Amino acid sequence: MEKKKVIIIGCGRVAAKHIKAICKLKNDLELRALVDVSEDAPKKLIEGSKLSAEAKEKVQVFKDYKEAIDTIKPDIVAVTVPSGLHYQIAEYGLSNGCNLLLEKPMTMSSEESRLIYELSQKTGNKIAMGHIYRYFPLVKYLREDIVSGKFGKITHGTIYVRWGHGEDYYQSAAWRGTWRSDGGAMMNQTIHAIDLLVWLMGTKAVSATAMLSQRLRNIEAEDIGMAVLKMDDGSLASIEGTTATSDKEHEAMFSIFAEDGTISLGIRNGKPKLNIRYKGKSRNMHYIMQQIKADGIGSMLNALNPHTGIYDDFVKALKEGRQPLADALSGYSSVDTLMGIYRSAKEKREIPLPLQEPFASSDMTGFFR
Ligand SMILES: NC(=O)c1ccc[n+]([C@@H]2O[C@H](COP(=O)([O-])OP(=O)(O)OC[C@H]3O[C@@H](n4cnc5c(N)ncnc54)[C@H](O)[C@@H]3O)[C@@H](O)[C@H]2O)c1
Q: Which strand (E) or helix (H) includes residue 267?
């Protein structure tokens, strides 16, 4: 099989994880261009990468993403620019025959996300979302058993994402923590966790009730948010997302409670945490062995750089003509849910989902004034 040509648009923090994944999957993927408005960013990214000298020579550098797409005609465009720029680049990429590895959140509004989802349907070009949690080991096997009813009736799910970031993080780029280009802890750090929880529960959110606050960080948007989602099977999901914790401690935890068992999995400072119980007994080893047997021991390491899992699945999805694990619909639904959460905080009421009218993160401007 010919290698897929990849270009990366936006050469900042997350782009380094993309290059790491491309290096790991060098038999399937070839990095052909880096694009950034800053001259230094692509150079730093290449220098800090483990690309071979030969692979480095194949990488062209552009300042203008349209020129890069028109020149290289890539199979995959990785969109790793600030979130407020996702829409315009995704629209151009899809309209010009490219598949996208689109970072989360898909866009900054329910309407733009709907348009991108519909455009991918219309053009047939695929989108793999940067929803890293779906690519954690065991997750897809747990979902199969939850959805097939093995754990019995689900009562509720909970997540907390305590992803501390200090002032230095927010000061590192002007777009961070702004309503228009980033949103706060719920939109940036928690959206992919919400996507995982809803997906694992195998149902859909039908309403959102939420509150947001600003406690420690000097930003425009929230540094802490709490929300409750009502699901269409009557179960409930609670969500806590914050960056107002220590930047030395990064923790995300998912739990699902059901009639016959509980499933808790997460990550704390890079170390996985797992507690799966079925009828009072631990089932941890059962799921670990299932993962190793089906996908090999190496797949357990995807927890260290989930972007490797995203690219690996995307290459297979393109070959098999199927949708990737975190597809365009997951991008659109999670933004729609997030916009419901923001709207609920703004209007102090329960908001039905999917949204009946468009809502954008920028509609929150002035919320904390
Ligand atoms: N999935 C994940 O785990 C994950 C982790 C971190 C960030 N992200 C997402 O990735 C995106 C980028 O985040 P980051 O932390 O890497 O940001 P960053 O600020 O570190 O990097 C963004 C880069 O984009 C460049 N850029 C800005 N405008 C551009 C343009 N018009 N054309 C080309 N380049 C342009 C900037 O110069 C910068 O180098 C965000 O949407 C964020 O939410 C996802």
A: strand 261-268
